[in-house]
Amino acid sequence: MIINDLLKFTFKHYPLNHSLNKKQIKKFIEASDPEVRTICKKIFDNTQHISFEFFLTRLNICINELLKIINLNRPIFVFIDSDSYANNFKYKSNFWLFTYLKQYIKSKLNKTKEFIIINNLENYFLTNNDTVILIDDCMYSGDQMSNSIRHLNNKKKLKLSLYLLVPFISDKSIQKVNDAFNKKHNLYTLCKIIYPINYIKPRSINNVLNKDELKILNNYYKRIDEIYDSYLIYFDHKLADTFSTITPFYLGIVPNQKNLIVLKTINHQHNYSYLLQIIPVINKCNKYVNHIDIYSPKCPYPPYKKGFMDFINKHKKDVIKYKSLSFPSNSNSISNNIKNKSY
Asked: What is the 8-class DSSP label of residue 331?
């Protein structure tokens, strides 16, 4: 299956290549305080950059697993929580992925399936033994997915399968989701939760740095947010917020005394990025040095959000056209390992 044949009917816009920039990383490390330079190198060496190609390949593997267990004689139910509905759900990542899911299954089965979006388990069409899909690109801490589980009230007492269509999942998030599931009596006693077999674990900063190194690095960013329990992963289509990863670090805020002084005196109600030394380390983010938003980063710019084309227009020469990318017929041939980069 050639990816262009599928993508042209799915996404209006593709993300750019936002791999790490070796030259910028060298400048970033040199501008850092001496005590933190080795720590910075460790982080870059252990960062998982997930290209758009690799992400879709992993997502396809999870969808193929789903197709083996779902009843294809029934509609396909996809859960999108009410909070997303209330906040322009069409500009959220799960709806963006939902549009891809529809087209992929259509191309895989060579026919159109009925998809029903639901925001609760009291939907009229749901019946025993149906599968409800909860979709996301990555589960970091598990807060968002566990919150969705907590809002599922199975008042009709149906026997359902909840399939988490998520290609990147941390151990911590599984524990948190399972805890939320087990506390819902009508879920725990009647339903089952299913994770993809071939998901990939994001790398935790706690497994890369020791306690002393974590404390040193955290001291530079704690005025923004704590770095503990963060995950060293980002995607061509998204850099997560500070609740999931070390966003200020990946946005290029150098851990040095100059920035430490600025951050100690900031007023969070005003933009302060123009006062900071920022050395962007992600390709095609060199123009994102003013008015940075660590809670909703604009580089990499999510292609499902408003304003993406404004971002693309600044990089017209860099837009990637996927011409030869194809999905392997044997999903088992895809390695679960992501090569570490050395700088």
From this structure: G
Q: What are phi and psi of 297, to 5 degrees?
A: -60, 140
Averaged confidence pLDDT in the chain? 86
Those residues whose C-beta lies under 8 Å from the C-beta of residue 83, and which sit 6 or more positions away, are none
Residue 237 has φ and ψ, to the nearest 5°, of -95, -5
Q: Are 57 and 324 in contact (CB under 8 A)?
A: no
**Token reading at 33:** 């305080």
Residue 270 identity (one-letter amino acid): H
Mean pLDDT of 27-54: 97
Residue 159 Cα to chain centre, angstroms? 30
Q: Which residues of 84-114 are buried (b: 16+ CB within 10 A; e: fewer)?
A: beeeebeebbbbbbbbbbbbbbbebeeeeee
Whole-angstrom distance, CA of residue 74 vs CA of residue 113 = 9
pLDDT digits (tens, 9 = 90+) for 296-325: 899 998 888 887 777 777 766 555 444 334
DSSP assignment, residue 46? T
pLDDT at 224 over 90: no
Asked if residues 194 and 149 have their Cβ atoms less than 8 Å apart, the reply is no
| Beta strands 138-139; 115-118: pairing state | unpaired
Residue of 7, 307, 100, 54 lying closest to 200 (CA atoms): 54
The yes-or-no verdict on residue 113 having pLDDT over 70 is yes
CATH 3.40.50 residue ranges of the chain are 54-194
Diameter of the chain measured on Cα atoms: 62
Cα-based torsion angle of the residue sequence 286, 50, 298, 262 in order, rounded to the nearest 10 degrees: -70
- In tens, the pLDDT along 162-208 reads 999 999 999 999 999 999 999 999 999 999 999 999 999 999 999 99
Per the model's pLDDT, the better-predicted residue between 81 and 69 turns out to be 69
DSSP 8-state assignment for residue 324: S
> Per-residue DSSP letters for 168-184?
EE-HHHHHHHHHHHHT-
Tokens describing residue 202 = 């994001």
Whether omega for the bond prior to residue 300 falls within 30 degrees of 0, making it cis, is: yes
Which helix (H) or strand (E) segment holds residue 60: the answer is: helix 52-69
- Is the domain covering 54-194 a CATH 3.40.50 domain? yes
